[in-house]
Amino acid sequence: MPVIRLEETVWLACQEYFVLDQEDDRLRDFWRREAARDLARMFEVLSDLGAVELTRGPADPLYTSDLDHDDQLLPPDAVERLRTALAEPDLPLVRLTPLGVRGVRERLLAEGRDAPLLGELATAPLAELLGVLAQHYPPEDAVAELRGWLARPGQDLERLLQAVRDCPFRTWAGAMLRVLADALPPERRLLHDLRHDPVLGPVVWTQLIEAGKLEPGPLSERENLLMGAESFLSVLELTGPEGLVEQLKRMGGGDPSEFVEAILASGHPDVVGLRELRELVAEPLRRTARHPLRLVPTRPPGARGRRKKRKR
Predict the structure, then answer these.
(1) Angle made by CA atoms 212, 228, 275, in degrees to the nearest 5
(2) What residue spans carry the region label Disordered (predicted)?
(3) Under 8 Å between Cβ of 115 and 108
(4) How would residue 49 be classed by pLDDT, with cut points 50, 70 and 90?
(5) What pLDDT does 23 receive?
(6) Residue of 233, 189, 232 whose CA lies nearest to 214
């Protein structure tokens, strides 16, 4: 990482903790340079301890790619300084050594933050393994972790697939299956082999179509209903019944309640999800279809202007 990027971040943090004279630019520049010198001295000490490695060279384009973002947190003057400095071919660079990575990881864990380490999930429960990989690991690290798990004796693909089948959440099951498919060599064609799996079939068809590897045309009417059920159950998980009802209303093309009834009769393997779909979406839609208008209390005809007779 270019040290200049860290200098600007440190200077931004300093301004949050210290009150500086906003009108004296010379004084502000002086303190900014002093903060940069302190940071450089800190890196020299960490380098002597073996926690970081200091080198020189050009900056990776990654460190200039965010300078034009609309949600940029750095002030305009800092962005311009970075744009100029990062164009130089010979910059101070810093990176963590293995010792530094270990120290940072221990600090993050002590603060209750996620800091996954490749290989630490080798003995994790299957559902936890796939769930953590899907949620917290970059794709390449997830693949490496999963291949390491599969390389251990007694740990095979079928056990992982069963963990996906047993997952009660459709969105998680889809994410777990995607991680698993990415970890295997392309010639395994895992998703194609699972097209007729009685539990994973709807997830598989959805992912194959999204990837452009399957045309929806050859699917039968029942398979289309199963895939529709998969989509509905995923939306129900993500947005709740209100979000699914809104989506149904936007679809048009007939009575939404009839479409939901067809989905409920699809035979999707997620029995619990279908029950929730029936109770939270289908039944309210059915009641709305029977009573489209809600009566609003009004005054009876001729009541306006009439006054009650005063009792004598």
Answers:
(1) 145
(2) 291-312
(3) yes
(4) very high
(5) 63
(6) 189
| Partners of 232 in the β-ladder | none
- 3 state DSSP class of 265: coil
> For the residues of 145-205, what is the DSSP string, one character each?
HHHHHHTSTT--HHHHHHHHHH-S-HHHHHHHHHHHHHHS-GGG-HHHHTTT-TTTHHHHH
Residue at token pair 């073996």:
50
Cα–chain center distance at 6: 27
Closest CA to 54 of 64, 62, 45: 45
Is the pLDDT assigned to residue 193 strictly greater than 60? yes
What's the one-letter identity of residue 146?
Answer: L
Confidence check: pLDDT of 252 > 80: no
Rounded distance, CA 86 to CA 68, Å? 14
Q: What is residue 254's three-state secondary structure?
A: coil
For the entire predicted model, the pTM comes to: 0.58
Q: What does the alpha-carbon distance between residue 147 and residue 138 come to, in Å, rounded to a whole number?
A: 14
Distance, in Å, from the CA atom of 149 to the CA atom of 139, rounded to the nearest integer, reads 15
**Band of the pLDDT at 26, cuts 50, 70, 90?**
confident
